[in-house]
Specification:
The protein is an alpha+beta fold. The strands form 5 sheets. It has a 3-stranded mixed sheet with strand order 9-10-11, covered by helices on one side. It has a two-stranded antiparallel ribbon with strand order 1-2. Strands 3-4 form a two-stranded antiparallel ribbon. It is built from 10 helices and 11 strands. It has a domain of 183 residues. Strand 5 and strand 6 form a beta hairpin. Helix 4 packs antiparallel against helix 5. 36% of the residues lie in helices and 11% in strands.
């Protein structure tokens, strides 16, 4: 089904963060081809099909806790560690790749091609800016889910290749006759044309160490709130920030975006993080002297840890690794309920108040 269009209301010191040297920068022609130029019409795209898939196969691991995850034992008599082994495994969100049938992965591939067709039939750069951004974020993440699903079981997404090219740099996505890689979408289109660094948290890499995949497709109307929540979760988690001595160690995920958003790395990162830090991370940021991008976990964000478990240990539709991960998640949530005061988040969106600017909620 096509999205509906409607008129509507390895550690380093990290001193000089740079994009990976082995990757080619997107061309100026590519960047110019998709430069936003909204025409003022209020078009909206509907990604309900993608939301349905996300809600079926993505499990949110709950708010960041900043504790080592409670370990749940495997089957009796087994010494094998089932499921992810990462210390960050109860952060962010996980995908249940072991229960995604091959036919579903094929449908995700078809949906990616349908999104491309929308890009061919519509002049994407003429849409409202939030609609453009939501389109690129969803197209990128659908493509990532497709290729990781095709390669599963695999321990680390960075090992995946498409026609001999690392899939991050493989130009298997085509919009308006322009061949694009996931990196092209990020760097050549979004990072080149959006000034607010919050956009970086919308791109899912399939890795535990990166921003979490959301259980809702990005939409133009709710985009600012969606990205703010993603940024807050990531920055306040252990995979985003960790203090040792007088150094605040942050994710190496920021290296790619540094030339676009954090050219004066340490002061720029401090200013950016100050908008989102909460609780203990507020103090960590204030009491640190240095910031170094050294943290990252390349393992797949998969309930089963990128492994196909022995059928002998399977429990119904879930393999033992996924079952253990869900039990560890439940222990985390039980701990939060016992030890932390209840708090709710109320989000007001799409409410126009007197004096609001006409572009309220637009991600710059």
């Amino acid at each position: 089904m096509l999205p509906q269009v409607a008129a509507a209301k390895d550690e380093t010191d990290g001193l000089v963060p740079v994009a990976p040297a082995q990757t080619a920068a997107p061309s100026r022609e590519l960047t110019a081809a998709f430069a936003p130029r909204p025409d003022g019409r209020d078009h909206r795209l509907d990604y309900g099909v993608w939301t349905e898939a996300l809600q079926a196969y993505v499990v949110s691991m709950g708010p960041p806790l900043r504790k080592m995850p409670a370990t749940v034992a495997g089957p009796p008599g087994s010494r094998i560690r089932h499921g992810p082994g990462s210390m960050y495994r109860t952060d962010g969100a996980m995908v249940g790749f072991s229960i995604i049938h091959r036919d579903v992965i094929a449908n995700i591939g078809r949906y990616r091609r349908e999104l491309q067709a929308v890009g061919d039939s519509l002049d994407i750069p003429s849409l409202p800016r939030n609609e453009q951004l939501a389109f690129w974020l969803n197209l990128h993440n659908v493509a990532m889910m497709e290729k990781i699903g095709e390669a599963w079981p695999i321990r680390q997404p960075r090992d995946i290749e498409v026609d001999g090219v690392p899939f991050e740099d493989a130009r298997f996505i085509t919009v308006r006759g322009v061949a694009l890689s996931p990196r092209d979408i990020r760097e050549g289109i979004v990072y080149a044309h959006w000034r607010n660094p919050v956009v970086i948290y919308g791109f899912w890499r399939g890795e535990i160490g990166g921003p979490a995949i959301q259980r809702q497709a990005f939409t133009g109307e709710g985009l600012a709130d969606q990205l703010d929540r993603a940024a807050r979760e990531f920055i306040n988690s252990r995979r985003g920030t960790e203090k040792r001595g007088d150094t605040l160690h942050i994710s190496r995920f920021y290296n790619e975006a540094a030339p676009f958003y954090f050219p004066d790395f340490e002061p720029d990162m401090r200013g950016h993080m100050a908008r989102y830090v909460e609780g203990p991370v507020t103090e960590m940021l204030a009491k640190s002297t240095f910031i170094r991008p050294t943290i990252y976990e390349y393992d797949i964000a998969d309930l089963s840890g990128g492994r196909r478990s022995n059928a002998f240990f399977s429990t119904g539709r879930l393999d033992v690794g996924a079952s253990i991960m869900l039990a560890e998640r439940q222990r985390k949530l039980d701990y939060i309920r016992r030890t932390q005061p209840r708090a709710g988040i109320v989000t007001f969106s799409n409410i126009d108040l007197p004096g609001d600017p006409p572009d309220k909620g637009e991600v710059e």
